[in-house]
Amino acid sequence: MCFLGFGSYFCYDNPAALQTQVQADMKVNTARFMALYAWYSWPNVVLCFFGGFLIDRVFGIRLGTIIFSIFVCVGQVIFALGALFNAFWLMEAGRFVFGIGGESLAVAQNTYAVSWFKGKELNLVFGLQLSMARIGSTVNMNIMGWIYSRVQDLLGRTGHSTLGLTLMIGGITCLFSLACALILAYLDKRAEKLLCKEQGKTVFARSGLLAACLCPVAHGGLCSSRTSVGNCLWLKNFYTLVILCSCVSMQSIQNLGLAIIAIAAGMILDTRGYLFLEVFFSACICLSLIAVVMLYFVNHLTGGDLNWSAKKREKLQKVAATEAEEQERLRRQNEDDLAKLRPKADDFSLRNRYLSKLGAQVLPDNYSSYLSTMAHRSMLK
User: Fold this and answer.
1) Helix 30-41 / helix 19-26 crossing angle, nearest 10 deg
2) pLDDT tens digits, one per residue of 205-255
3) What is the 3-state secondary structure (H, E, C) of 148-198?
4) Pick from 98, 244, 245, 299: most CB atoms within 10 A?
5) What are phi and psi of 208, to 5 degrees?
6) pLDDT by residue (tens digit) across 138-156?
């Protein structure tokens, strides 16, 4: 599960690891280079709304994970071919295809995590997945330059061919992640048979929107792996659903910001220089810090739940489960009591058959409701 996103994160930062080589071999400026990251983000401005839906309703978690892994592999191959053929537009197209699979693959990874783990285990799994993803980025930054040098020594020259071959070698990590997706699909299929674990019955899968924005419900382990969104404690309220949709809208805005900021950063570097770019990034970080502090105080003052610990969420879950069981018991008890008070439907027809055998006058059908009322009154007395 952790290695599922290794290849995606490794190849995501291939341009950053080879920025000097890309700009020199493809003869592009920084603004054009940063478009490679913008093209990755463009599809995810929209896909964050549909990635989880496709996993839940169309493909299923297993097939969806494999399909998105294939998108990542194909996108990386197109990206490498663009360098081999000295076609920068083809490299941009490859990054676009790569972006279609990259973020949706992260949604599938989180769906698997919630399907297999819950509570404190889930928090640990999320941490391990994130760590493995960052390891992929770190390995990429440290090894891609070295691979480029070895390919250069092999070919005896630099240029777009050397760059393309280097990117193609880096794509091997995507094949590794695809293999992990196939293995994980097999393990999940086997678990479905052995543990009677229904596929996709998770809070993430039932609303891929949640998986896209990694909502605090899953992080806190408030919903069990077999609890649908409709039955989830946190999602019984319509306004909560509206807030969750707003969270996904914010995810879309974030991806849009990543696309625009990437282009803006390249233009600033080309026109103003590196120092001005650092000031720009520092200002963005300061604004983010201010927003986080404001969010903390607003949540604290309004009695929000963002600062609750996993232990408190688990306690609330147990209380809610107990209350639900008590309500269900009372409902069944009321149904049993009403069933005892309800007169049998066949009593009136049996009475008429008995009277007909005796030769007595048969009572009209409209007497049925009257006798039922009399029976209730007699029981009450």
Assistant:
1) 110
2) 343 444 444 443 333 333 433 333 444 444 444 445 444 454 555 655 665
3) HHHHHHHHCCCCHHHHHHHHHHHCHHHHHHHHHHHHHHHHHHHHHHHCCCC
4) 98
5) -60, -20
6) 899 999 999 999 999 988 8
Tokens 């490299």, residue?
Answer: 91
How far, in Å, CA of 68 to CA of 108, rounded? 8
292: tokens are: 């986080």
pTM over 0.90: no
- The answer to whether 59 and 49 are in contact (CB under 8 A) is no
**φ, ψ at 222 (rounded to 5°):** -75, -30
Enumerate long-range contacts of 242-247, CB under 8 Å, 24 or more apart: 244/207, 244/209, 244/210, 244/213, 244/215, 245/209, 247/209, 247/210, 247/213, 247/215
- On whether the CB atoms of residues 56 and 110 are closer than 8 A, the answer is no
Q: How far is Cα 208 from Cα 68, in angstroms, rounded to an integer?
A: 14
Give the dihedral sign, CA 42/44/47/51.
positive
Distance CA 216, CA 268 (A): 36
Which residue, among 348, 370, 352, has the nearest Cα to 360 in the 3D structure? Answer: 352
> What pLDDT digit, counting tens, does each position of 11-33 carry?
998 998 998 899 999 998 888 88
Tell which residue, 311, 375, 380, has the closest CA to residue 345. Answer: 375
